[in-house]
Sequence to fold (687 residues):
Amino acid sequence: MPPKKRTAKTNKGKKSTNKYLVVVESPAKSKTINKILGKDYKVLASMGHVIDLPAGKMGIDFDNGFTPEYTVMKGRGKYLKDIKKEARDAEAVYLAADPDREGEAICWHIKNYIQKSADTVYRVRFEEITKKAIVDAFKNPGSLDMNKVNAQQARRILDRIVGYSLSPLLWGKITRGLSAGRVQSVAVRLIVEREKEIRGFIPQEYWGLDAVLSKRPKGPSSERFKAKLIKHKGEKVHIKDRSGIDDILAHLEKERFIVKDISRKEKKSYPRSPYTTSLMQQDAFNKLNFSASKTMRLAQMLYEGVDLEEEGSVGLITYMRTDSVRVSDEAVTAAREHIIQTCGEKYCPEKPPVYKSKKSAQEAHEAIRPTLPLRDPEQVARYLNPDELKLYSMIWKRFIASQMQNAVYSVLSINIDAGDYRFRAGGADLIFDGFLKIYKTGEAEQDGMERIPELNTGEEVDLVELLPEQHFTKAPPRYSDASLVKILEEKGIGRPSTYAPIIKTIIDRNYVKRLGRYFQPTELGELVNKLLVENFPDVVGYEFTAEMENELDDIEDGKLNWVNALEAFYGPFANKLEEAKERMKSVNKQEIKTDEICELCGKPMLIKWGRRGRFISCSGFPACRHSKSITTGIKCPNEGCEGELVERKSSRGTFYGCTKYPKCTFTVRNLKELQKNGNGENAVEDV
Fold:
């Protein structure tokens, strides 16, 4: 419990009532919490991290147990001074950063900076910013969790070692301004390897066959239905080419089609668990077309608080960085009450569904859910902007649906034999919508199926026509925000708080670019990945990176000493670094001559590598600094323009513009759009 209020003298000798100081990360969060706690508390925002490793050097004492050299971050000194000033006369200080490793580290740094007696500094944690959660947290304040702090220190130092060792190496071998990272480089590797799969993919032909059948007697008014060929002599059918399908067609023309068996059974579709960070990001991308960064930005606002006028500022969702699907008993009870009131008792299961988190999940956290299940999207719509409302609605529906009854289908399956060939007809009718009343999963939920006439076992049906269809296998798709987050989670690379920053970093570094909704590696990204994989296969290896994440979890759980973990990594890494300095080829020395002449000085132009990829530069550099981007080889489609299209970047992503800009302002987002008008048709596939 907080100590009782007391009166103290200020420096001017006047008496003032000391308030309790609360420190959070953001102004929005401070505003919401201040309204809940009242006038006896002063809530200040640190504006995120305030103390970190120095920006211009490694900042790690390798000879003294990897001791970090912490400094106040640029622009954060003012906030720290304000916090220290208020803490000096405060009766107690409550550190209330987010309930994760980063939040714990922020609190630890602030505690060390304000140098206040340990028995007057408390750590409070809450999963949601609501009155009940805040009041309960302040009634039972705790202390800092040094295992979490050490896990975050280990991650930060580990990432600094990798980044500040590999980045200068890339500067020397390619060009200055490049970067490498323990996790970001693995993400780039995934995207590059997928691109190689796509380039090397050879489409394979295959055929499918449907039969249009009719209940006897055959005629214009007889009931027709389709059945799909599935087996030949009990084995699954694989039809590779035209000759194969022609052979089957010839056989079937002579066969009688007999109903072999009919089955109808009920099939249940189970509700999905509430959202984890990964699942929320995937669904927000697939359903709302939100990037991972946008999803987390919106979720942060919903978590920190929205002004609901008469209710004040209220957090609408629980903490949005989590890999747990656990839900509090209070939330389950509230959800069940809402389901009964709005949908009816038949939609509420006798016992609440229980969901199992993955092995590495932090069960101290809850799943992402609305803080008050009764607060449906319609009630808060006027307080949210359109995107915030879309995300809140998605989270609310997923959670409510997770506590509802199963959906039930009636599944009909009819096997029809034609000699040695078996066809199957059927489908599914939704007979009870259950959780689908609230939440559509996006799978093949059918509210009905093609009409099939009443048939009996042993009955013969007539063949109306055979419908062969040619197909070709497709290359695996490029990664999107959703699929990249999914594969990172599956491989154990990164954690909930890192998915969005990883994607942002590799785009900002120009290692990958967006093509519509998907990621494609840039030429620079492929080069950097090639050099890192050749020289540091472990550091950018999937299993190694996942194992490092597991070790960080072990440090947080108190099972592993953080210094020992760093020592085990650094020795082998330092040896490989020295080897790579000698072995890694220097691409920056590989200048390629061109037929172009510098328009400023008349000297030959060369192709060189820069931080944005390859470019053309004058061979007279540095005396002549003329340079330009490499064009796509596609002529500008504007009539009378002699320019070519070149790739450019903006805050909205990659686009292509004319080299004659600003005289010609033609731009296009996707080069394939030019094919519609017959422009650049031959060059598009190579770009």
Notes: The chain has five domains: 7-144, 153-200+480-583, 205-270+407-472, 277-402, 592-686.
